[in-house]
Amino acid sequence: QVQLVESGGGLVQAGGSLRLTCETSARAISMYPMGWFRQAPGKEREFVAAVSWSGISTSYADSVKGRFTISRDNAKNTAYLQMNSLKPEDTAVYYCAAESRAFGGPDSKGDFYDYWGQGTQVTVSS
Questions:
Q1: 3-state helix, strand, coil in the chain (%, to 5)
Q2: Using one digit for the tens of pLDDT, what is the confidence trace for 34-82?
Q3: pLDDT tens digit sequence for 105-123
Q4: Do residues 118 and 7 touch, judged by C-beta distance below 8 A?
Q5: Do the Cβ atoms of 32 and 24 come closer than 8 Å?
Q6: Cα angle vertex 87, ends 86, 88, to 5°?
Q7: What's the angle, vertex CA 92, arms to CA 23 and CA 89, rounded to 5?
């Protein structure tokens, strides 16, 4: 069973930055694509960013392109989401997710992901 633990959320002013971290003890995670999703109050969960198993390929939602960067360090079984130029509309609970499809690319559909973290709150004040 793969357990994912997010950290790094918090309260930040508009224009600020945060870096989210997703850690797991499962070494097999290095073979799986990983992604970040978010859910704001009263809204459906939405895709934010994804990274292939190798870290070479990435995918982003249009709303975060140019501001967010996803990366991973397979030696540390960790994925990151660097968030810059944050806006109030970025306020949400952010979830880390991992697929169980080895050597896959960065998928944007939540249905492809089998493992999810508990989430970390990001609040951006105006």
A1: 10, 45, 45
A2: 999 999 999 999 999 999 999 999 999 999 999 999 999 999 999 999 9
A3: 999 999 999 999 999 999 9
A4: no
A5: no
A6: 130
A7: 130
Tokens linked to 13: 């002013």
Classified as helix, coil or strand, 14 is coil
Neighbours of 83 (CB within 10 A): 27
Nearest to 95 by CA among 28, 20, 12: 20
Residue 22, beta-bridge partner list: 6, 79
Q: Which residues contact 103 (CB under 8 A, 6 or more apart)?
A: 31, 53, 54
User: Token pair for residue 122?
Assistant: 């990001």
User: Hey, what are 81's tokens?
Assistant: 């989401």
